[in-house]
Amino acid sequence: MPISASTEVFVHIGLPKTGTSYLQAIAWPGRAELRDAGLLLPGARKSDHLFASMIVRDDPGVARRGPDAPQAWDRILADIADWDGNALISHEFFCAASADQAQRMVGQLAPAEVHVVVTARDPLGLLTSSWQESLKNKSTTPLADYGRTESDDPRDVWDWRSLDLGLVLQRWAPAVAPERLHLITPTPAGSGREVLWERFAGVLGIEPDTCDTSRGFANSSMGLIEAETLRRVNERLKGFNNARARGVWLRSFLADERLVPRGGEPFWPASDQVEDARRRGARAVELVRAAAYDVVGDVDLLLVPDDLPPRRNPQSVTDTEVADVALDLVATLLGDLQRRTDRKPSSSGPPPTPPPTRLARLRQAIRGV
To answer: Domain span at residue 82?
Structure first.
């Protein structure tokens, strides 16, 4: 059955590190409520949208994601064809697609009216946040060497290819009419995080209270010394070579649940990287102002400010500072191990299960939809 011409399909392509996890953490647990409101999240589960992005970008690595992964895009297309209403496809890695791949994806959704939704952020914030994300995926690249390229390969998602709004728009904008490309800018400083969801819901044509926004969470950053400590730990790690192991142990267990809560000081990359980010932001804003896209928010917030507060660079972190964080981390891990081994079965049955962490609850909710 072909997709209906009356269907509107919203393809949220990212960019990475622009609140995409927050939006998806609201949408997927609220899948039933969205359906009742006339908006379908197609596919069997959230991971189907990741797998679909890999298929669209011709990434052969999808075959290693499980026996059902290579059919994810077909499942999404079939679900939309069977649905009498609008649909949302959301994953931040779609933004790395080539212009030809973007056109092909939109063509496969025809004759539906396809809207491309882009969430954006200033490129300096994207650079530092994406570097931290790469560390959670076992990267050992120092910040000074990060973000130095513009890859031609759609499989490269942690690169200016997907972080530079101007480059992404140049590839994706030709695939749809200008008024059907929706650009959501950063929310103003001091505004609640729910403003991003409200803007997103407005583009989708649903009421913001359709879903429970308390389910959403914003990814938090590691401090300067914590990030450098994780990078050096990665240099000594053995194993953790698949996506699940990195996600469970490096991203969630080590980074999000043990290093992020320490707080720590924010940081900047090298001065030439700051200037490169500033140029990219200015170029993207110039492109947006010259086009007829649907812009939600203040486009000036996509610029890197001329005056930045002083911050250290990861290259300034000393061995002593890393050792202090590492010793605290060892002490924390020993406490974790002791609590786990001290839970002994009682005569009346197994010990009670401790309350899950926020990230554990999110993973359970997503697996359950």
So the answer is: 8-124+156-217+271-308
**What are the backbone dihedrals phi and psi of residue 205, each rounded to the nearest 5 degrees, phi first?**
80, 30
CA distances from 246 to 134, 138, 141, 222, 366 (A): 11, 7, 16, 17, 18
Task: Decide: 15 and 58 in contact? Cβ < 8 Å.
Answer: no
Q: 43 lies in a domain?
A: yes
Cα dihedral across residues 323, 327, 332, 336: positive or negative:
positive
Please give the angle made by the CA atoms of 221, 224 and 230, to the nearest 5 degrees: 80
Judged by phi (left if over 0) then psi (alpha if -120 to 50, else beta), residue 324 lies in: alpha
Question: What's residue 224's pLDDT?
Answer: 97
CATH at residue 78:
3.40.50.300
Amino acid symbol at 53? S
pLDDT(206) > 90: yes
* Mean pLDDT confidence for 353-363: 53
> Which element (helix H / strand E) includes 39?
strand 39-40
Q: Which residues lie closer than 8 Å to 172 by C-beta, 6 or more apart?
A: 13, 95, 97, 99, 102, 116, 118, 181
Q: Are strands 86-90 and 39-40 parallel, antiparallel or unpaired?
A: parallel
The answer to whether position 76 is within a domain reads: yes
Q: Which residue carries 């269907």 as its tokens?
A: 7
Angle at 2 between CA 29 and CA 24, to 5 degrees: 20
Total number of domains in the chain: 1
Whether pLDDT at 354 is above 80: no
* Integer Cα distance of 325 and 5 in angstroms: 57
CB 117 within 8 Å of CB 20: no
Q: Quick check: pTM over 0.70?
A: yes
